Fold T9SS type A sorting domain-containing protein.
Amino acid sequence: MIKKLLFTCCLFASVTVSAQSSTAAIQDNNTIESFKVRPNPASNFVNIILPKYSNELNIEVYDVLGKRIHKGKITKLESQLQVSSWKSGVYLVRISDSKTTLTKRLVIQ
């Protein structure tokens, strides 16, 4: 079942995406299709999983107040972030390329 979702945050532009299950997706062959954040909630580390190889992607993580707490690049299908030093709470994980930005919620326990 495909649902249309509207993601909005005070620091991010609104982006309409289609989603099936818990995976966000954008339909375009030259952009990011989806990504997963596992485990969620997390306490020590989190895996960022891409379904297929894409060009180098940007990753940014923001707290709920909009402060960027992590910035980096993703160059492989599965990348790991150490989150054990992060405070408990809700974070936004933003993956982007030159055309598309996808955002997922992450809970740190």
